[in-house]
TrEMBL record, chain A:
This is Sarcosine oxidase subunit beta. Pfam families: DAO. Residues 35-79 form the Rhodanese domain. It comes from Pacificispira spongiicola. GO terms for biological process: tetrahydrofolate metabolic process. GO terms for molecular function: nucleotide binding; sarcosine oxidase activity. SUPFAM superfamilies: FAD-linked reductases, C-terminal domain, FAD/NAD(P)-binding domain. Keywords: Cytoplasm, FAD, Flavoprotein, FMN, Nucleotide-binding, Oxidoreductase.
UniProtKB/TrEMBL annotation, chain B:
Residues 516-598 form the SoxA A3 domain. Keywords: Oxidoreductase. It comes from the Bacteria. One of its GO terms (molecular function) is sarcosine oxidase activity. Residues 581-614 are annotated as: Disordered. Residues 170-426 form the FAD/NAD(P)-binding domain. It comes from Pacificispira spongiicola. One of its GO terms (biological process) is tetrahydrofolate metabolic process. Residues 904-991 form the Aminomethyltransferase C-terminal domain. Belongs to the GcvT family. This is Sarcosine oxidase subunit alpha family protein. Residues 614-885 form the GCVT N-terminal domain.
UniProtKB/TrEMBL annotation, chain C:
It holds the Pfam family SoxD. It comes from Pacificispira spongiicola. This is Sarcosine oxidase subunit delta. It comes from the Bacteria. One of its GO terms (molecular function) is sarcosine oxidase activity. GO terms for biological process: tetrahydrofolate metabolic process. InterPro entries: SoxD, SoxD_sf.
Length: 418, 999, 87
């Protein structure tokens, strides 16, 4: 297994790149494992990685029906932040952000985590008050946050609409300087390589088709490559959570919705951090390759189709042009869609299920990518100890029944509204 | 100049002047920027993304990976514009990109020297530093971000406009080449409504660029005749300069028309571009095919061009891209290029054909012309700096290298049908081994591909298949052929079989060993060796390959690289191409401007603006407008020009409470409910009871969501036996109406209730304060005395000048107050009458700030408390929940998490020092809190200043609620470095007994 | 973009409509148990395939309709007035 460093890259240059080996093995599935993780996206891979690294559980298989990172890991707009107001979210996402800060070195794989800041724009004093409430909660939770006035926003992001022609003039904004972006594919690959090095079997093209459950306890899974036994099975299949959990007889407070993402042609540096529009719903940043990456609302209907439609595309065009008056001259290069597990309170579910030994990690709504390492970390803990970590205790499935919703937007049990 | 007389469709009588990198050149009308540059001998036009290698024009169409320029200047600057798609206009200004200080001398070209250390994905393996949390990567990233990207963009506001258009048709034909024209002719002949679109300025497709005869006339004449026929049919719409970028659900095709991009600036109020939503019953995809390049050493040098592009420059633009040419091909088609070049007077040094044999009429014609044909050979390396001077040719099996001096290498690796649009519908492209290309998959929508888009690579195939598919589409749309339809007469071409060459062999090792890079993706500098590396490291699925190497991720979207890259990976994996698969063809087909996406909805037009009927009156006096959703509401009315917002709202509060104030409350939602079951319905949707509400009375109402949280509050007025009008908050007017409609239609259709939103129909004005009665009495023709019109009374009324309206004795301010609703058109008249009547009482208009301040003083909840997370009990309204009836939200309102002592409940706060304000958004912690994470007890929801009590006041949601009354807490706003000690009080600061309401 | 054949207005583009979620869930009686309401408000089959759902013709006749649509292919198989389906 090649260790990555500047020296190995130099060596590669001198040996026609013959010094590199596979980033992860391609093993055939064994008959049984201690733990099976369903889903080879960022969350599943992170769970396997931390199971091995933090809990010494290495007899683990990650089962992926297609190719690693082919779901939302490779489809999102790569934003990482922990600017949450409610405690259950704040502690969790902050843990995740802290893990991001050390992830590249930890994995020996540059996931290009770059903390250029996440700025939420405010267009009225009432919105500034709402951001103050959130920002103050962040600060009291030990999370960085700064309130910017209009001039400070202009300095941070001069391309925004500061003209008299703005329909909703910018009043200020809430900045999380430690927020930023990462290279989404690299996260999946780096975690896969990291987990593989610790002994985890990563098995692609292996679709789970059913569960073996006896007396309410999980015994293994049925797959397109045969049955595999395990006493503990973790599900991390964002977008398809309802579908997979239905095979185990569990109905969830989740709807699958389409979220589109957009990237422009590559440009020289145009926008530094992540900026979100407060008079609508649009977030924009620039990738290291130079493309402006942006997205906004859901298409607004249940879907598993992974392709969106024109009304939302036009809507996003309106939003981004209203936000950045010069952007009309630039060109859209690609747009695509992912399937979001939208929960009834807009927050994720990580924890135990009614089936003993079956653990659920899903319902990520918009927020799955930034949660990747934190999600894996707490999920690994939950699986290893059959008990949630205090950080994800409030994000359990039972909260809906018990009326402990973690509703950051206050939109209520309307999944598409979060 | 390399213009050839007798060739080309440019208008030589119309010379146009343009500049590239500051130097002035001349072209002609009909040129593209690329053809004009080539005509002027400009062969170096750009630098590649990663290694900054010199690059020239590669193609003649939308697939161009190299010739990207910044077009125009100032606010109209358009980076990354493909010179091959830019129509030349007089005064055009273009600049090369991704180079410094100049195109010829680019400092970052040094990257080429280090290219061996910069293979695919090198950045994943380094720049992360030995220690965590050092942000080392961000230092490298700073440099990398500046090196990456292609063009640079302006921050100046885009001065142009964009339009949108939506149309329906029976048959949409995408692509106006021979197949598309035939399809449109055949389809429209049936009477079907046909739209024919083409991305270029002129229809004709390859017929503009190749020398064919059709029906005994030059192809151009046939195109002109066909277009004339189509134009004569009033059911046909022809759209040139229009790109179909995406295929969406229910057969909607998204297109962008470049209306005025071929002009220096848009004229005659025309938009720059127009966005078309075309809804077609049936679609014919005659999108053509894209020629694929070959992969060999240094295949990226300026002067290396697609063979079809060479013919395009010759036949369409009259430009000879080189005087001495070598042709490198794996199929017959490029032999045409040899013939055309010879006809134009160029010298063709050799045709290098990778096939073992090449026997057809076409190849024989080339041999007959005396051109050397080398079968079983490949070009393995090129030389020349920066432009091509020589190529090395070697047998595929190895052996002696022959050198050919040339300034043009025309290559052809076969043609790949443009299956993008059909693929977007979910029809997975199918590999065809015989043709060595992907063909469109089985259609999943009412569409079919025609011509070369379906793998018919002869002209006869295009014309005949086009007709057949066009007719088929019209029939499927419900039309039938009325006459006979003759397929045009053309020569039948027979080609020798193609045999793909995905990667040419390496040349013999040079003096220092190593091999030249063989580029697959020219824009992103992805070489065959990068694909090998990806394979070695296990990134072998197509998507991993693409993402790891950035293959096909450039602005050309892999149009000339995806297929070859896939084939090379398949070879490395030892599997057939169909097993390895294809990547997803994501829309748009070609990049489209974001301005067209946004249409005209930007700037002030981003969202409509809702205004009350009294808007102009306010506008003349308002200090500041506040957006409330789409509404504008006055914030305050300064009495003197310098009066601050704070001074103004305190004065407005004081004057209202001291005498009388007037406020525009039009924005509140108003819903009219009528019918025998209206009371029953109201009892279901509100949490409190209304059964004993008499006619002529109003009651406060509280609505819960199904999950038991508070949704909205407002008033319910019983105007008649079966007639109610309810109000909602401004923010919830729309959702509450939609919900009422849902309940009445989908849940309880048996209820006889009619709901009508009347928000826009009425202007609403609140008059509040001890003198409110006297003012109102002077205006309305109704006894408003306490006896005749007590608190919570309502009645229809007329003003003294005859305006009909409704009067309500309700109060948000806590004062004696009335609200009058009159038809919107009379709003200003009644407002004026009230102002006039109030003059002697010094009536004061008050804005949103004073309105909010007074409700805070009274402890009335509003939007900042109704935040979707609060229960009725949290807001001190728990007693309102009826025990006598069932209502929406009741069943789930008492779950354990929504009850209990730890809930945050409504309280009042006053500063301990009596002076400091308690800013909105502050969190509440205990006075002896320690470092983060700090336990938060609650937060301030709204704050103001009570002139009556002469103290800042605030409402807050606080854990434990009123059980903490009298306690001191810390109100803290760390973002502003503010912390104030506050005392917990009840939430009502003024007139707690409500005496003023009832007097 | 979807098109729905609104029973009142005819074939109309989806951007005149707003989405209303799963239409197979029957609203419980207001007096039904907490469990029944929990199931109706929170629990979703969320099928990958045929889905019966509410749409509101908010930019048209303001009527709620019930649409049969496939969540995997986006094919639309029918559109009826919501009031009809309840009778």
């Amino acid at each position: 297994m090649s260790h990555y460093s500047v020296f190995s890259v130099l060596k590669g240059g001198l040996t026609s790149q013959r010094n590199w080996s596979r980033a992860w093995r391609d093993p055939a599935p064994r008959e049984a494992y201690d733990v099976i993780i369903i889903g080879g996206g960022g969350h599943g891979l992170a769970t396997a990685y931390y199971l091995a690294k933090e809990h010494g559980i290495t007899n683990v298989a990650v089962l992926e029906k297609g190719w690693l990172g082919g779901g939302n890991t490779g489809r999102n707009t790569t934003i990482v932040r922990s600017n949450y107001m409610l405690e259950d979210n704040a502690h969790f996402y902050e843990k995740s952000l802290q893990l991001w800060e050390g992830l590249s070195v930890d994995l020996n794989y540059n996931v290009m985590f770059s903390q250029r800041g996440v700025l939420n724009l405010a267009h009225s004093d009432a919105q500034m008050d709402a951001y103050s409430r959130r920002g103050n909660a962040m600060r009291l939770n030990g999370i960085d946050a700064e309130l910017l006035n209009r001039e400070q926003v202009r300095q941070y992001a001069p391309m925004l609409d500061f003209t008299d022609n703005a329909r909703f003039p910018i009043v200020g904004g809430l900045l999380q300087p430690r927020g930023g972006t990462a290279r989404h594919d690299a996260v999946a690959w780096g975690l896969a390589r990291g987990a593989d090095r610790l002994g985890v079997d990563i098995i692609q093209n292996c679709e789970v088709t059913g569960f073996h459950i006896e007396n309410g306890t999980v015994k293994g899974v049925e797959t397109s490559r045969g049955p595999i036994r395990a006493e503990k099975v973790g599900v991390a299949v964002a977008g398809h959570t309802s579908h997979v959990m239905a095979m185990a007889g569990v109905t969830l407070p989740i709807e699958s919705h389409l979220l589109q993402a957009f990237v422009s042609e590559p440009l020289k540096p145009f926008i530094d951090g992540v900026v979100t529009f407060g008079a609508g719903h649009c977030y924009i940043s620039q990738s290291d390759k130079g493309g402006l990456v942006f997205g906004g609302d859901l298409d607004g209907y249940n879907s598993y189709a992974q392709r969106g439609n024109l009304p939302l595309i036009e809507h996003l065009g309106e939003e981004v042009c209203a936000m950045i008056p010069s952007v009309g001259r630039l060109r859209l290069l690609r747009h695509w869609a992912g399937i979001m597990d939208m929960t009834m309170d807009g927050s994720p579910i990580i924890g135990k299920t009614p089936v003993q030994g079956l653990y659920l990690n899903g319902g990520w709504c918009y927020g799955g990518f930034k949660a990747t390492p934190g999600s894996g970390w707490v999920f690994a803990h939950t699986i290893a100890h059959d008990e949630p970590h205090w950080i994800n205790k409030g994000l359990d499935l039972a909260r809906f029944r018990e009326g402990r919703m973690v509703d950051e937007r206050g939109a209520g049990p309307v999944p598409g509204a979060h | 100049m390399s213009r050839i007389d007798g060739f080309g469709r440019i208008d030589r009588s119309k010379p146009l002047s343009f500049t590239f990198d500051g130097k002035t050149y001349q072209g002609f009308e009909g040129d593209t920027l690329a053809s004009a540059l080539l005509a002027n001998g400009v062969s170096l036009v750009g630098r590649s993304f990663k290694y900054h290698r010199p690059r020239g024009v590669f193609s003649a169409g939308p697939e161009e990976p190299n010739a990207l320029v910044a077009l125009r200047s100032g606010a109209r600057r358009e980076p990354n514009t493909r010179a091959t798609m830019v129509e030349l206009y007089d005064g055009l200004v273009a600049e090369s990109q991704n180079r410094w200080p100049s195109l010829a001398f680019d400092v970052q070209a040094v990257n080429q020297v280090f290219a061996r250390f910069l293979p695919a994905g090198f950045y994943y393996k380094t720049f992360m530093g030995p220690f965590a949390n050092t942000r080392l990567w961000m230092m490298f990233e700073h440099v990398i971000r500046r090196a990456a990207g292609m063009g640079s963009a302006t921050y100046e506001t885009d001065p142009d406009t964009y339009a949108r258009r939506s149309v329906h048709c029976d048959v949409l034909v995408v692509g106006g080449g021979p197949s598309g024209l035939s399809a449109a002719l055949a389809a429209s002949e049936t009477g079907a409504r046909v739209i024919l679109i083409d991305e270029h300025a002129e229809f004709g497709g390859r017929l503009r660029q190749d020398r064919y005869d059709i029906d005994g006339m030059p192809a151009a004449d046939w195109v002109a005749k066909s277009l004339a026929t189509l134009a004569s049919r009033d059911t046909v719409r022809l759209l040139s300069r229009t790109s179909a970028f995406g295929y969406y659900d229910n057969n909607m095709i998204g297109c962008v028309e470049r209306v005025t991009d071929h002009l220096a600036v848009p004229v005659d109020h025309k938009p720059r571009q127009r966005w078309w939503q075309i809804r077609a019953a049936q679609v014919v995809l005659a999108t053509g095919a894209l020629e694929q390049p070959l992969v060999f050493g240094n295949n990226d040098r300026p002067g290396v061009m697609l063979a079809g592009a060479v013919r395009a420059y010759l036949n369409q633009f009259g430009v000879l891209p080189g005087k001495r040419a070598v042709i490198f091909t794996s199929g017959d088609d490029a032999y045409r290029t040899a013939l055309d070049l010879t006809a134009a007077g160029a010298q063709v040094m050799a045709v290098v054909d990778s096939r073992d044999t090449a026997q057809s009429a076409l190849t024989q014609a080339v041999r007959d012309a005396g051109i050397e044909v080398l079968t079983g050979h490949a070009v393995v390396d090129t030389h020349g700096s920066p432009t091509l001077q020589r190529v090395d040719v070697m047998p595929l099996t190895g052996g002696t290298v022959r050198e050919f001096t040339c300034d043009l290498l025309a290559m052809s690796g076969g043609w790949q049908p443009s299956v993008h649009l059909s693929s977007q519908t979910g029809a997975k492209p199918v590999w065809n081994a015989e043709l060595s290309c992907f063909l469109p998959g089985v259609p999943k929508r009412p569409e079919r591909s025609a011509g070369s888009a379906a793998g018919h690579f002869t002209l006869y195939g295009c014309l005949s298949e086009g007709s057949v598919r066009g007719l088929e589409a019209a029939k499927a749309a419900g039309f039938s052929a009325t006459g006979t339809f003759a397929i045009p007469q053309v020569d039948i071409e027979r080609f020798a079989p193609t045999a793909p060459l995905w990667e040419a062999p390496d040349p013999p090792p040079g003096l220092f060993g190593g091999h030249p890079k063989k580029f697959v993706d020219h824009q992103d500098d992805v070489a065959a060796s990068d694909i090998q590396l990806a394979h070695r490291e296990g990134y072998i699925s197509v998507e991993h390959l693409k993402r790891y190497t950035t293959l096909g991720m450039g602005t050309d979207q892999g149009k000339t690289s995806n297929l070859t890259g896939l084939a090379i990976m398949a070879a490395l994996r030892g599997e057939p191409i169909e097993k390895v698969g294809t990547t997803t063809f994501r829309p748009p087909y070609t990049p489209i401007s974001i301005g067209a996406m946004g249409g005209s909805e930007r700037g002030q037009q981003y969202k409509p603006r809702r205004r009350s009927p009294m808007h102009d009156w306010h506008d003349a006096r308002v200090g500041e407008w506040v957006p409330a959703g789409l509404w504008d509401r006055p914030r305050h009315y300064p009495a003197t020009p310098g009066e601050s917002m704070r001074d103004a709202y305190i004065r407005e509060t004081r004057q209202t409470r001291g005498s009388v104030g007037i406020c525009d409350v039009t924005t509140l939602g108003k819903i009219d409910l009528q019918g025998p079951d209206a009371l029953d319905f109201i009892n279901r949707i509100y949490a409190n009871g209304f059964s004993n509400l008499p006619v002529g009375k109003v009651r406060y109402g509280l609505m819960l969501r199904e999950d038991g949280m508070v949704l909205d509050d407002g008033t319910v007025a019983r105007l008649g036996e079966t007639h109610y009008v309810i109000t909602t908050t401004t923010a919830n007017a729309v959702p509450v109406m939609a919900k009422i409609e849902f309940l009445l239609q989908a849940v309880w259709p048996e209820l006889k209730v009619k709901a009508t939103s009347v928000t826009e129909q009425y202007a609403a004005i609140a008059v509040a304060g001890p003198k409110a009665r006297e003012v109102m009495q002077r205006v309305v023709d109704l006894d408003v005395s306490n006896a005749a019109f007590p608190f919570m009374a309502c009645a229809p009324c007329r003003t003294k000048d005859g305006v009909p309206g409704r009067l309500f004795r309700i109060s948000f301010s806590g004062e004696l107050a009335y609200e009058i609703a009159v038809p919107s058109d009379y709003g200003q008249q009644v407002w004026d009458a009230l102002m006039a009547a109030g003059r002697e009482f010094d009536i004061v208009p008050y804005g949103l700030e004073a309105l909010g301040n007074m409700r805070i003083e009274k402890g009335h909840v509003a939007g900042s408390e109704l935040d979707g997370r609060t229960t009725a009990d949290d807001l001190g309204l728990g007693k309102m929940l009826s025990k006598k009836k069932d209502f929406i939200g009741k069943a789930l309102a008492f779950r354990p998490g929504m009850t209990g002592e730890t809930r945050k409940k409504l309280v009042g706060l006053v500063p301990v020092d009596g002076r400091s304000s308690l800013p909105n958004g502050s969190q509440i912690v205990s006075v002896d809190h320690t470092d983060p994470p700090v336990k938060m007890l609650g937060h301030v929801t709204a704050n103001g200043f009570s002139p009556e009590r002469n103290i800042p006041v605030a409402l807050a949601l606080l854990e434990g609620g009123l059980a903490r009354e009298g306690e001191t807490v810390l109100v803290t706003h760390p973002l502003k470095n503010i912390a104030v000690q506050a005392r917990v009080t009840g939430p009502v600061f003024v007139d707690p007994e409500g005496k003023r309401l009832h007097d | 973009m979807f098109q729905f054949k609104c029973p009142h207005c005819g074939l109309r583009d989806a951007n005149e409509f707003t989405y209303g979620g799963d239409a197979t869930i029957a609203w419980p009686d207001l007096g039904a148990s907490e469990q029944e309401w929990f199931d109706a408000v929170y629990q979703r089959e969320n099928p990958r395939g045929p889905h019966r759902e509410y749409w509101h013709h908010a930019g048209g006749c303001r009527q709620w309709v019930v649409v049969d649509r496939d969540t995997l292919t986006h094919e639309i198989h029918g559109c009826r007035a919501a009031s009809e389906t309840q009778k």
